Amino acid sequence: EIYALRIFGIENKKSNSGINSLNEIAFNIKSNKTNFTQVKKNIRDLIKKYSDGNSFRRSIIKDQSYYKKSTDVIKYFLFEYESYLSEVNKNDFKLPSFVEFYNGLGKVFTIEHIAPQTPLPGSIDILNIHNLGNLVLTRNNKKLDNKMFDQKKKIFALSELSTEKELTDHNLWNDKTINERGNRLANFAKNRWKIK
Predict the structure, then answer these.
(1) Is the pTM of this model over 0.85?
(2) Closest Cα to residue 190, out of 97, 75, 52?
(3) Cβ neighbour number for residue 30 with a 10 Å cutoff
(4) I need a labelling partner for 50 at 20 to 30 A (CA). Which of 41, 83, 148, 156 fits?
């Protein structure tokens, strides 16, 4: 999971990245030429080669994720962040399990741009509109629609989801707050998918 998410999901590396090394690891396992400790070390080294901490972090904060990454990867990332925040905040709302989420219950959850994709007249220009820091998992997509942040904030305040409630701590939403949230997401991801 760590290898796939970091290298292919977040960093968008080519699908054959590390394939020769993975084949060699598999051959050594089949031939009893390695042990579990060595396999872990080899995979850890591969992850570091294709997704070192700085590039992983930079991809989370700076990439235009909404267009560069699969919707499933973004939803999974945001689901994991919601699970983490719900636990930290001792949220009463019970998220479905990961399996339930992907086997149908996740359809009620969508990805919402915090600052709208289509800015309204008179709104400030946001350069990081498609960055992960500007995306949130929601069950209120139709209510949120293309509203400005101050209107969305009122809807977020009533949400059962910790990630939406967290957004109500902000008075305005702009490139600076998107980058700040991107940093929080990167810190979360660094711990959630750390190289052990």
Answers:
(1) yes
(2) 52
(3) 9
(4) 83
